[in-house]
Design brief:
Blueprint: H1 5-16, E1 37-40, E2 43-46, H2 57-67, E3 71-75, E4 78-82, E5 85-88, H3 93-100, H4 102-117, H5 126-134, H6 136-151, H7 160-167, H8 172-180, E6 199-203, H9 207-220, E7 230-237, E8 240-247, E9 253-257, E10 261-263, H10 267-272, E11 274-275, H11 280-287, E12 291-301, E13 311-314, E14 323-326, H12 327-330, E15 341-349, H13 354-357, H14 360-373, E16 382-395, H15 401-415, E17 419-421, H16 424-427, H17 433-449
Parallel strand pairs: 4-13, 7-11, 10-17
Antiparallel strand pairs: 1-2, 3-6, 4-5, 7-8, 8-9, 12-15, 12-16, 13-14, 14-15
The protein binds flavin-adenine dinucleotide (FAD).
């Protein structure tokens, strides 16, 4: 169920082992899920730029096996855009202070010294923690606005431990050291600080090329991905799933029988489609899982070059756009005409809110207006635009998500052992393609060979760890801030 990276990786692995598969995808036109590449009048763009980077060599090798020379090796440039200036990202102290100008720099330094001399004791919120490290002014310029745009939650309400884990190696001393000694080589691969990675791989025609190729390979072996099939019912009898029923665009139903079933569709949808229904406690747990949604507006601009970055973070609180991708800088072949540019303006939202429900024409006008307001280009230079809404782009990690996932997971493991969960929303894990692929590889091997390696023990770095237990916080791999837990 689902032809994103997880579903297609599972199919690829199973077919390699001569196990026949059927992949069911609700999208009527294309595969790739969140990692698809959308095409509009010859311009290609991602749902958020997709870097291909993994600490897992098996996944890296698989990408090479599938696309060979079509995988480009790209340099990364991504800066923060604030008040008309570009700031290095990851933040470099000298660059930041220089760009802010002498007055603001002096105020930032004073605010930093004040925070170091009088830190908040036992910081609980993200705001308190980051302020202690950088001072209030730098915090409000470089952390507050962007984090709140992405998560839709005040940084006062977010727990400090995420920042402590993600930003710890970027305190001012490390930032200064990396600015002074840019060529210092990390000793081992695992030591690379995630935000400092400055090269990545990328398919020449965008991430969707990877998944279109896997679908082609599958079709070549006699198992084409079945598009336009939304899973509407999952039938089970006597402790085993027996069939999945899909509904097409015209309402036509199809029944697909099998011995084993892999789900990469959101857990909330999976549980709601079980027939007979799961026990009330399981349905409630699944129903409580939340998601953050996402809109990308691709604008085509009549100019060969707008800015040199792959993407920029927009920290200006006066605009709603959070990030801007420049797809031509990911791969020149993402645009059909080198004299033009295609930017992807990214807005983070909740399905049903004011942004989500805004008509496309108004969204395009908003994006054009914000580009002009930021001084990136004139609205009149934009000659085409298209809106892509992506529901459930980010599984939300709230206070209770782990307990809720645990309830569903234990029910499926004990009551429906031939139903296997894999992937991002499939396991409610906020992780990259490599993680989704690794979980799918383990599920496929479990089905093909009876291997007992547990996909839940793949951490955020896509590395298998024997000692992660049910419900345990995978702190080492936490990628998402959580709300401050309610006091006991
Ligand atoms: C903005 C953004 C930026 C990202 N950047 C990166 C990056 O730089 N590098 C990286 O490696 N990863 C990145 N990711 C993460 C990456 O996209 C995911 O890890 C990956 O796509 C998850 O694969 P998946 O197969 O588990 O899920 P998905 O890609 O979500 O695929 C699930 C599939 O199931 C289908 N489906 C859903 N419901 C049904 C149903 N009822 N019936 C049938 N089909 C259904 C969907 O249409 C979809 O095709 C990013 C994600 C986002 C949102």
């Amino acid at each position: 169920m689902g032809a994103g990276p997880a579903g297609l990786t599972a199919a690829y692995e199973l077919l390699k082992r001569d196990v026949p598969v059927t992949v069911l995808e609700k999208d009527p036109k294309q595969v790739g899920g969140l990692a698809r590449t959308v095409e509009h009048n010859g311009y290609r763009f991602d749902i958020g730029g997709h870097r291909f980077f993994s600490k897992n060599e098996e996944v890296e090798d698989l990408w090479t096996e599938i696309l060979g020379d079509e995988m480009l090796n790209r340099g990364r440039l991504s800066r923060i855009y604030y008040r008309g200036r570009f700031f290095a990202y990851p933040i470099q102290a000298f660059n930041a202070l220089w760009n802010l100008g002498p007055l603001e720099a002096a105020l930032c330094l004073a605010s930093y010294l004040r925070a170091r001399l009088r830190p908040v004791k036992n910081p609980r919120s993200l705001e308190e923690w980051v302020r202690n490290q950088f001072g209030w002014r730098l915090y409000s310029i470089f952390f507050k606005t962007y984090t709140e745009k992405v998560w839709g939650i005040s940084t006062k309400e977010l727990s400090a431990d995420w920042a402590a884990q993600r930003i710890k190696s970027l305190d001012l001393w490390v930032v200064i050291r990396s600015a002074l000694l840019p060529n210092r080589k990390p000793r081992r691969r695992g030591e690379v600080v995630t935000t400092l990675i400055d090269r990545f791989r990328y398919p020449r025609l965008g991430p969707g090329q990877m998944w279109e190729r896997v679908a082609e390979i599958s079709a070549g072996k006699g198992h084409p991905v079945l598009l336009g099939r939304a899973v509407s019912r999952i039938e089970h009898v006597d402790g085993a799933v027996t069939a999945v029923v899909t509904t097409g665009a015209g309402g036509e139903a199809e029944r697909h029988e099998g011995t084993d079933f892999i789900s990469s569709i959101p857990i909330r949808e999976l549980v709601a489609r079980l027939e007979p229904p799961a026990p009330a406690a399981v349905r409630q747990a699944a129903e409580r899982l939340g998601y953050r949604d996402f809109i990308s507006i691709a604008l085509m601009i009549d100019r060969p070059s707008v800015f040199p970055d792959n993407w920029i973070y927009i920290h200006d609180p006066n605009v709603r756009v959070g990030r801007i991708q420049n797809f031509k800088n990911w791969s020149p072949d993402m645009v059909p005409d080198p004299s033009k540019t295609c930017l992807g303006l990214e807005y983070f939202c909740f399905e049903g809110d004011g942004l989500w429900t805004m008509p496309d024409a108004d969204m395009i006008e908003l994006a054009k207006k914000e580009l002009a307001q930021l001084g990136i280009c004139e609205a009149g230079e934009v000659f085409d635009g298209v809106v892509v809404r992506q529901p459930k782009a980010y599984p939300v990690y709230d206070d209770s998500y782990q307990a809720n996932v645990g309830v569903v997971r234990e029910y499926i493991a004990s009551e429906l052992p031939n139903l296997h969960l894999a992937g991002r929303n499939g396991m409610h894990k906020y992780n990259n393609q490599d993680h989704s692929m690794m979980t799918a590889l383990l599920v496929a091997r479990r089905i093909a060979t009876g291997s007992l390696l547990d996909p839940w023990k793949v951490n955020a770095d896509a590395v298998y760890h024997e000692d992660i237990k049910v419900g345990e916080r995978d702190l080492a791999g936490r990628q998402v801030p959580e709300r401050i837990p309610a006091k006991a």
